[in-house]
Amino acid sequence: MKINRFKYIIFAIFFILSGLIYSFFRFEKDDDETIISSDEKISIENEAQKIEEIFVYICGNIKQPGVYGFESGERINDAIEKAGGVTKEANLSNLNLAEILKDGQMIYIKSIHENSEEESDGLININTASEEMLMSLPGIGNVKAQGIISYRENSGLFNSIEDIMKVEGIKEALFSKIKDFIKV
Phi, psi at residue 97, to the nearest 5°? Predict the structure, then answer.
């Protein structure tokens, strides 16, 4: 009887050890399946960056100016469509409609009259000029150009070139530097 019992005990130990070994290797296999290679990790990170939401301000001769959200990788043409399209007075010749949008970007849609006015006398119309055009004036940087645009959007158009001094940060000294280059 002792031999039979001994066989059962050996068999039971063997069975338990077999189960433990199987579980151990099965656990290792599950871990291997969840490991992400560095190439896959980069791909996943790139996908996350691709669907990052960005915000763009579109204004000027556009039907519904405003700030709109986009997925990164969308283009200026997508922004125009989202803002309801352009007005009859819009001039798109200065825009690259295929340009990829950037977070915080401002897109200004000129009117057909802006280019002809600016080309005829070389003066910048402070009521219609884009941020880039305003920044071409002496002493006007990004902050002051945005201030001018913000002022005319919130307070209305300038009635005279002297009204530009109502914009915060533009006083008599700066006005004297730009007065010969601007018009309304």
Answer: -65, -15
Say what the pTM is. 0.41
What's the farthest any 2 CA atoms get from each other in the chain? 118
- Distance (Å, rounded) from C-alpha 22 to C-alpha 24? 5
Q: Can you give the pLDDT at residue 86?
A: 92
Say what the pLDDT of residue 147 is: 94
pLDDT higher at 122 or 125: 125
**Measured between alpha carbons, how far is 122 from 111 in angstroms, rounded to an integer?**
17
Q: Over the stretch 68-103, which tens digit does the pLDDT of each residue have? A: 999 999 999 999 999 999 999 888 887 889 989 989
Within 8 A by CB and 6+ apart from 89, the residues are 61, 111, 112, 113
Q: Would you state the torsion angle of the CA atoms of residues 8, 10, 14, 17, taken in this order, to the nearest 10 degrees? A: 110
99: tokens are: 């340009």
- How many whole angstroms separate alpha carbon 127 and alpha carbon 125? 5
Half-sphere exposure of 89 (CA within 13 A, CB side): 12
| Sheet of strand 53-60: strand arrangement | 66-71, 53-60, 106-111, 90-91
